[in-house]
Amino acid sequence: MTKPILLVTRRLPPAVEDRCARDYEARLNSTDAPVTGADILARAEGASAVLCCPAERLDASVIRALPDTVRVIGTFSVGFDHIDLAAARERGIAVVHTPNVLSVATAECAMLLILAAARRAGEGERLVRSGQWKGWAPTQLLGTGVSGRRLGIFGMGRIGRELVSMARGFGMAVHYRDQVRLPPEMEQGATFHDSDDSFLPVCDVLSLHAPGGEATRHWLNAERIARLPRGAVVANAARGTLIDDDALIAALQSGQVAAAGLDVYNNEPNVAPGLLALENVVLLPHLGSNTVETRDAMGYLVLDGIDAVLAGRAAGNLVG
Amino acid sequence: MAKHRLVVARPVPPAVTDRARSEFDAVLSDGADMPPDAVVQALADHKAEALFFSSNLKLNAGLIAQLPQSVRVAATCSVGFDHIDVPAARARGLVVTNTPEVLTDCTADLAFMLLLCACRRAWEHTEVMRAGWRRSFGMRDMLGIQASGKTIGIVGFGRIGRAVAQRARGFNMRVLYTDTARVAPELEQGAAFVPTLRELLPRCPIISLHAPGGAATDKLMNAETIGLLPRGAVLVNAARGSLVDEDALIDALQSGQLAAAGLDVFRKEPDFDTRLAALPNVFLTPHMGSATTETRNAMGFRALDNIEAVLAGNPAIDPLWS
Lengths: 320, 322
Prior knowledge:
The complex is a heterodimer. By secondary structure, chain A is α/β, with parallel strands linked by helices. Chain A has helices spanning 14-23, 37-43, 60-65, 85-90, 103-118, 121-130, 158-169, 184-187, 196-199, 222-226, 245-254, 273-276, 292-310; strands at 5-8, 25-27, 49-52, 72-75, 94-96, 150-154, 173-177, 191-193, 205-208, 232-236, 257-262, 281-283. Chain A folds into 2 domains: 5-97 and 292-310, 3-Layer(aba) Sandwich (Rossmann fold); 103-282, Rossmann fold (3-Layer(aba) Sandwich). Chain A is 35% helix and 15% strand. The relative contact order of chain A is 0.14. By secondary structure, chain B is α/β, with parallel strands linked by helices.
């Protein structure tokens, strides 16, 4: 029996490409060159499935022009804003994505940012690499302890809940703010806050884990920052739009916020110049999920979904 | 009653300075570390009964011989005491104390930070940001290692090693440890004892060192022992630089035997081997395991507590020997 044709738009982790080649006649992108909608169409002849990445826009015109053989689009991402779902539905093309498997890697990234910001790791690293380190001194680069402090989690979804168990190992008392309280068995001892008024003053460390969008746009603004304990630490591995950059920069300069660790930004990759100029920030380039383990898991999950659709089974990771 | 006379040989945080001033007749270093001859001079001039110092001052046999007879206690503001000649101090009848316990959590936090930063390639990524983030990454570029769910080997299961184990459990890591003896089961909290380093290493994709320094542990991690780790392992050292053969470490980081390392300590400090600073797959911090305001205050207070106890005629709280 001939294998179905799978078009893979970009290079994927080796283990994932191996599985593509094992189960499909895989059309891989060995140079990892960026791909346009036209490139996809040019390579899609006879394909049963397309495995794409978030950088590619599969708008209505691309989807309408796909060959009739295409029955499923898999995206190597949780988000699917880049795919016109209505156009896919019209053509009877299923769309599958990679929910849930990124939670642990993203929570790890948040914990890294919390620790590195609180302990002034960026400054310490630069001091060592610069060759200017003059030796240990009792008052050098004193940071903020994490153990025994209060962690406030804004948005207690899967990632926030993963962070709770990590933070508890550090002896942190966990508080959280969300629209509704979790069932007690999922709280792991964390304290629910139904208002910013009670939540913000207990956040020695504030970690953001809410979704983006208009409802949360610039949630962390000057007014809310002012209600944090002085010298708080802020981490954001969720969405850049949650933070008003100008307000955060001003607070980092005044000492109201002692340090910040950021993996996401407004207008990526054009990070606010004021952030790049600060010493008391640790900045990462949106690496939330980029571990070998997670990228493999994302690839396996999207392939599971493609396999299921082509075999006429129910895919557990169908969009919509 | 007259206050006891004290010399503080290096700058300390303001809260510690304040307490030293209020509770002692104290001579404080003036913004800079006192060199050894200045320490001896200050102790003699002040007829000091106590010395407050830390690892920059080598309390060796020569210095101990020069201490005025008035000096009864020397308190190092550190948990490590490889800078102290213990036999010479004992022979002199000097009481020497350190500051254990108060920096346990702080040091464990930093070790775990190094672990995460090494695994997730934080140095390379922060450098991308400092260059203005002008690159986009494909789905297999610059991937890190997920710590969660992996096995961690802890070498030295004292207070700090156990605190690291507690943090690792929050990441669903399996904890193995080795030490000179198995600890009491209630201290293990699920960690499994492995009798020897050689048996431990092949099982550990992540290894964190928490053993004391000194001759017995010198170059514990060398070409041979690093070679026993699974390929692509991650090494963390927030304990003592002497534990690692840095030539072997650099070779392993270049060959891929080690995927990454997180280091807070070096064989020579601060004049560390700068070949390390040329490597992308290391995360380096300047011996800042205890560098939080709370911990440095607590260490200073603990050193003062020890001095007060001894000068009041009571046993030291943290004597180096008993």
